[in-house]
Amino acid sequence: MSAWQEDADLFGKAGSKAFLAMLAARCVELSERGVNVKNDISKVSASAFAKAAGKAVNTVKNYITTWDLLAEDGQVPPRDQLAPGVDVDLPTVKTWTEYYRKANPPKPKATKPEDVTLEQVEAELAENPDVRLLPVPQSRHVTTYVRRMKHATEDIGDRAPDSVADAVMRLVDCLEALSIPGQTNRAYLHSLDAVAELAAAFDNSR
User: Fold this and answer.
1) How many Cβ atoms sit within 10 Å of the Cβ of residue 175?
2) I need a labelling partner for 95 at 20 to 30 A (CA). Which of 19, 33, 77, 154 fits?
3) What is the model's pLDDT at position 76?
4) Distance CA 67, CA 100 (A)
5) Are 134 and 184 in contact (CB under 8 A)?
6) Which residues, 6+ apart, have CB-to-CB distance to 128 below 8 Å?
C-alpha cells in the first residue's frame, strides 16, 4: 500500500477534522487548482483519494479548500510543501472551524412556499392563458373512483379531529373539481395546499 493509500485509509476513519484535512491536503495533487505537480506520482486526484477513503468527493474538496485558505493566511504549510505520510502542525479546533465556515459558506436558503400566497399564484395563472392543465375526463372508471373516494370520507368528521377532517374534505372537493373545465388550475393548486394543511393537521392533532 502506498503512502497516499495509507492516508486515504486513515481519512476513512475517525479523527479531528483538521487532521483529516491534512491527510487530504498532502495527498491530493495541486493540478485540480491549476498548479501542476511535475512527475509527482505519489499524489492523486481528489476523486481517487475520496474513492479510496470511502468518502464523498465533496467532503474531500471541502477539507482541501479549507486547508488552502489556512495556507494563504500562513496558518498551515501550502499543499505543494506537503508529502503523503508526513505530519505537520495543525491549527486549533477554533481556528479550523472559523476557516471552514469561511471556505465553505452555507448555500442561500430557498424561497419558502409561504412567501407566495394562493391568491398570488391564482392571479398569475389567470394572467397567462397559456398555462392550463387539462381536466380529467369523466370516464366511467374516473367516476367510480370519485364515488369511492367520497364514500370513504363521508364520515371522516366522526373519525378524525376537526382540523384533519376539514383538510381531507377540502382535498376531496379539489380532486373532484379537477374534472371541471375552467376550474382545473385552481383545483390542482388548492389540492396541493390541502395536502400541506392535512400534514400540518396531523402534527397538531398529536
Assistant:
1) 19
2) 33
3) 95
4) 8
5) yes
6) none
**Residue 30: what pLDDT?**
66
Residues 24-64 pLDDT 10s? 999 998 654 433 444 455 889 999 999 999 988 888 999 99
Cα separation of 21 and 64, whole Å? 6
Cell 394543511 locates to 197
> Which DSSP string do the residues of 107-136 spell out, in sequence order?
PPPPPPGGGS-HHHHHHHHHH-TT--PPPP
| Residue keyed to cell 476513519 | 13
Q: Give me 151's grid cell.
A: 364514500
CB 192, CB 122: distance < 8 Å: no
Q: Which three cell numbers stand for residue 110?
A: 430557498
Read off the C-alpha cell for 170.
377540502
Written as nine digits, the cell of 101 is: 465556515
Long-range contacts of 150-153 (CB under 8 A, 24+ apart): 150/176
Whether residue 145 contacts residue 137, with contact meaning beta carbons closer than 8 Å, is answered with no
Q: How far is residue 160 from each of residues 19, 152, 173, 191, measured CA to CA in Å?
A: 55, 13, 18, 19
